[in-house]
Amino acid sequence: MIQPLTEEKGYTLTPGSEGLIETQTLEVSIGPQHPSTHGVFRMDCTLDGETVIALKPVMGYLHRNHEQLAERMVWLGSMPYTDRLDYFNSMTNNWAYALAVEKLTGIKVPERADYIRVIMSELTRLLNHTCVIGFMLQDLGAWGTPLLYAFRERERILDLFEAVSGSRMMCNYMRFGGVRVNMTEDDLAVAKDIVTRYPRFLDEFEKLLTSNEVLLMRTQRVGILPKELAINASITGPMARASGVEYDVRKVDNYGVYGRFDFRIPVGDVGDVYDRYYIRVLEMRESIKILQQALRDIPQGPYIAPEVKLRNFKIPPGDGYGRIEAPKGELGFYLVADETGKQPYRYHVRPPSFVNLTTLEDMCLGLKVADVVIILGSIDIVLGEVDR
Amino acid sequence: MGFIGKGLLEGMVVTARNFVGSYFDKERMVTVQYPEERVQVPENSRTFPFLVFDDDKNPVDTMRCVACKICEVECPPQCIYIVMDRDEKGKPQQRPKVFDIDISVCMQCQICVEVCPFDAIKMDNDYEKSQYGRFNELVEHLPDLLKSNEYYNKIKPREASGVDAKLKADKEKKAKKAAPAASKPAAAPAPKPASATARITIPDDAPFTPEQREWLGKFLVTATPAAGAAAPAGEASAAQLAAPATGEAPAGNWPWHDPGMGIQQRLELAKNKPLADLLMAAMAQTDCHACGYDCRGYADAIAAGSEADLSLCLPGEAETENMLKKLMEGAGK
Fold first, then answer.
1. Which among A352, A331, A211 has a CA at the least distance from the CA of A281?
2. Is A198 on the interface with B (CB under 8 A)?
């Protein structure tokens, strides 16, 4: 089933002691029920001793028929299901789907709604990146400490999400043409408070991690993803930027009101696990910049386009692709509407973590099993999105 | 930079500060000792839906739900099941007999609340729903779901006061609309018997039981000379009822626009009227907007040919759909 890479990559198996024992490769199935696989992901590893010589990702354990379900449902009905794709970042998932529908119908989103969307999705980016770093360190063996610090901060953001949208994680907050509930002045004050606090937490987090010798030894020059491969495999998000690809949908598409904010795209150099860690820290600092500007400039006005009907919402025939820069990379929805216009004829999700996962084997070959776990952690996958 | 291990030591200082701080610093004391302590949930917080009723003494009669089944249709995971209440004769009672929500399927998305035109279903914020069983215990029936408007005001004061104000305004508007319509037939003597049939109505607040109301309605129809000559009530064929369009019905004066009547009785009242009126009389008269129009608008749209789907009247169930088909066939469309 799995081809050991002996011939192709010029790899020779480690000889047994004095040639007395014949050397064999060993197949190990890591996952699906394994705490380091971030859900229910399975890897079929072929090992020579502890060295990985082949790795095959096995997906589909959490397959929930998301796309087919959406094709049997009215347009709005899929909105709560998008929360369950990448269950860390329901706000950005909502936005990507709403954006695709708005592109198809030409609905104009009010300015305030766009600002609220930016605030929500940048807060989502903060909590996603904080948690990813926490999980990555957990994979390295730092049991709990960084992860719990990350969760403590994340909880403040989730409290705000609950106060605004009604639910901590399954927000179901955005609607075609705007958002469901307005953000009150109190909510904005809470968001401002979070934003002023966050740099302090990041400083502390960095002090704990960035120059920690153990972290440096375990992550530098591990799991290198070359720039060419990142481009060819259509890797997006922090992973691509860590490999030196300067590509960010926020800058490329300027969707929403992102064109109005002043922020930079951090780009890595080596493309190893450490770069992927540090890019995320830098991105959080840029997110804070965006948030400060958005909270300063948010205008008054309607929060949802008044002409959008909740029920009997119909879309003229056509197809469209809406994409945003989700915390994990480019998240896109490809929608096709037929003559009835009540349901999607085709509904396709382009999930970032699924596409980013395809280069796992290239990054892992020749490294030890312990490195595979940290490389997987640095890709930042959520199985709800990989398997759909 | 420093010596090897400096980063480690710095990190340990951070952990030490966090450790000590977790006892003294309010910023870092984040654990809530549940169940002794509880977090105050925000007003918008949502768990599972419940049904609102207005009067504590009579929850069943004052519940706002009219069993229009919009939420049942719109619910993305299809966890709602509604059966409309009917009396012995099969006349709809404008309230659900069965209203089940399977909370093991419900995904708390709030779409039922958003689509409800009657403000009848709202989200609870009770998060302690643990059960010993996995199956029947997790299906909530009508008695479990009914909660008072007071309770709704308690858990969501801001939202509920808005809803109350809106309902009150609607009621006043309705009363205002009904007042001139009721005084009109009394003030002006009926010029023609045919138009009199259209005008004699039983006011909504008249002290009649549904049975009496139906009987009285039939009586008023048959007692009028013009209508009395027509086919016997109840089994009138739709083709006969569909008289050629001879004039517009006065706007807002539709005697059949009463959800308490049976469908046959409504059709009787609309007899000899244009097709659009007959179609309207076949609707459930709840103005629930389940079809995307009110009852009048849906009938007009069908009659004008702009709406081809005859199955959109959810509260009318199969009865309305069959009658609409019959009427359309009778009209030769």
1. A211
2. no
The domain locations on chain B are 49-167, 183-245, 254-333
What sign does the dihedral B144-A181-A194-B158 (CA atoms) show? negative
Quick check: A288 pLDDT over 90?
yes
Strand partners, A312: none
Q: Point out which residues pair with B52 in neighbouring strands.
A: B147
B32: number of Cβ within 10 Å: 10
Alpha helices in A141-261 (DSSP H): 145-165, 185-209, 213-219, 227-232, 238-242, 249-253
Q: Which residues of A touch B14 (CB under 8 A)?
A: 204, 207-208
Contact A331, A348 (CB under 8 A): no
How far lies A124's CA from each of A139, A232, B156, in Å?
A: 22, 28, 26
Closest in B8, B70, B110 to A214, CB measured: B8
What predicted TM-score, i.e. pTM, was given to this entire model? Answer: 0.80
Nearest to B230, CA basis, from B272, B183, B196, B171 = B272
Read off the pLDDT of each residue in A283-299 and give the average, rounded to a whole number.
92
| Strands, sheet with B80-86, edge to edge from the N-terminal-most edge strand | B80-86, B92-102, B139-140
Closest residue of chain A to B1, computed from CA coordinates: A211
**With an 8 Å Cβ cutoff, are A213 and B4 in contact?**
yes
CATH of B49-167, one of 3.30.420.40, 3.40.720.10, 3.40.228.10, 3.30.70.3270: 3.30.70.3270
Q: Looking at the complex, report in whole angstroms how far the Cα of residue A287 sits from the nearest Cα belonging to chain B.
A: 23
B111 and A207 in contact by Cβ < 8 A?
Answer: no
What residue spans of chain A are helical by DSSP H? Answer: 66-71, 79-83, 90-105, 111-140, 145-165, 185-209, 213-219, 227-232, 238-242, 249-253, 273-297, 352-357, 360-364, 369-379, 383-387
Instruction: Quote the tokens at residue B199.
Output: 């005008």
Residue B237 has pLDDT above 50, yes or no: no
How high is the pLDDT of residue A327? 92
Under an 8 A CB cutoff, do A80 and B6 touch? no
Nearest by CB: A149 against B13, B18, B289? B18
Flag whether pLDDT at B69 surpasses 90: no
ipTM comes to 0.79
User: Taking the CA of residue B33 as centre, how many other CA atoms within 13 Å lie in the half-sphere pointing to its CB?
Assistant: 3
CB B99 within 8 A of CB B63: no
The more confidently predicted of residues A294 and A19 is: A294
CB contact under 8 A, B115 and A311: yes
Whether B247 shows a pLDDT value over 60: the answer reads no
Average pLDDT over residues A27-34: 83
> Tens of pLDDT along B209-235?
777 777 776 666 655 544 434 444 444
Q: Which of A311, A314, A339 is the mutation pick for testing B, counting most B CBs within 10 A?
A: A311
Collapsed DSSP state (helix, strand, coil) of residue A202: helix
Q: Quick one: what percent of chain B has pLDDT higher than 90?
A: 0
Q: How many helices (H) and strands (E) does chain B have?
A: 15, 6
* Residue A228 sits at the chain B interface (C-beta within 8 Å): no
The first and second tokens of residue A82, run together, are 């998008």
pLDDT digits (tens, 9 = 90+) for A148-206: 888 888 988 999 999 998 888 898 899 888 898 888 888 999 999 999 999 998 998 88
Q: What is the mean pLDDT of chain A?
A: 87
Measure in Å the smallest separation between the Cα of A217 and chain B Cα atoms.
12
Contacts of A120 (CB under 8 A, 6+ apart): A91, A95, A161, A164, A171, A173, A179
CA–CA distance from A230 to each of A54, A247, A271 (Å)?
20, 11, 9
Residue A127 neighbours by CB under 8 Å, 6+ apart: A88, A153, A154, A157, A158
